[in-house]
Amino acid sequence: MRSGHRLGRRFGWLWAAYGTSALGTWLAFGAFPLIAIQVLGAGPARVAALAGVGAAAGAIAAVPLGPWVEFRRKRPVLIATDLVRFAALLTVPAAFALGVLSFVQLLLVSAVAAAADITFRAASGAYLKSLLPPEDLLVASARFESTGWTTTIVGPPVGGALIGLLGPVATVVADAISYLLSALGIRAIGGHEPEPEGREAARMRATDLLDGWRYILADATLRPLFFNTALFNGLVMATDALLAVLMLGRLGFAPWQYGLALAAPAVGGLLGARLARPLVGRFGRHRVLVTAGTLRALWPVGLAFVGPGTTGLLLVMGVELCLIFCCGVFNPVYATCRLERTAVDRVTRTLTAWTVTTKATTALLTVLWGVLGSLLGTRTAIGLAGVLLLVTPLLLPRRTPTPLPESEPEPSHI
């Protein structure tokens, strides 16, 4: 493991583009629900539909894009998806200024942005793998993770101030501009990207849509990681939704206290991401992956015991700090392992399948836990999610993976 080495100018532009768009996303965090409520007078059902239906529609639309993007140069795809998000988001302030903004438009923009986001994530993973040698992937993943947590800390408070001064539509403009700047940064990467070898798009068949899932389920390392991350992320997000109801409702916390309880612990993610590479250098990648993946599952059950007042607020912050720190260590190691275990000609399809499944699982479990919260009580449902999270470490890979060839032959279709 080399320390403090540079990854080159081209990676620097990709990193800057990621940081810019991530900051824009967090600046506009919660903007669409606020617009739906404050501008369009939407009720709880419509706001929930905006979050769930838009994301689900985007995930469905992204499924055929994975195989299509696999056999095309990735940098033009990254630029195109950034420009699509830029254009789609700009329609919101334009319609607002003209007085024609509607809930249907918000739903469509949400779906387009979700599909573009999934496609961008998949293509960027494939591009990163082609841009850097294998020994630098963990360094790059840790830097992305650190940047992600930094924007999580900075973005929401600044975005909240911007909403207070100019309204939620202004943060949508900021988010749109961030995607334009990201596209310009990716364009500045330059260099020649060879045309991927493989089948032409015209030969793509319906069965190709499942290639990503087939590849994941056939790999002894990717398969348990796939189920572990989908279940873990889904249960944690379901718990977050219920925690908001508990803290802002029954326990009577102010919105700023709730925001502080979730934003301040993001410092733990930044610290964890910075420590990931040294820990791997000392203890080995597989041990860090399993240990951090196990430890992150231990904390959420503590949220079932949150009470009112300062003690309750400190308990939430402590649990979230420990959880996010473990995630900060786990995420770059897991992202690196996933890239290394995926053949270069399968990365886009695999990452698309992975992201679609994770988003769908999160949406399903969030709805399910909302029902359980109504039937069993919010605190009981949070505790149940915490107990189930204790089981997720059993899905982590238990053996050090064997080396993987750089590419594998395409499956034949009879």
From TrEMBL:
Alphabetized InterPro entries for the sequence: MFS, MFS_trans_sf
Name by which UniProt lists this protein: MFS transporter
Gene3D superfamilies documented for this protein: MFS general substrate transporter like domains (1.20.1250.20)
Compartment(s) of residence: Cell membrane
Transmembrane region(s): 12-35, 47-65, 225-249, 255-276, 288-306, 312-330, 378-396
Membrane-protein topology: Multi-pass membrane protein
Keywords from the UniProt entry: Cell membrane, Membrane, Transmembrane, Transmembrane helix
Pfam family, one: MFS_1
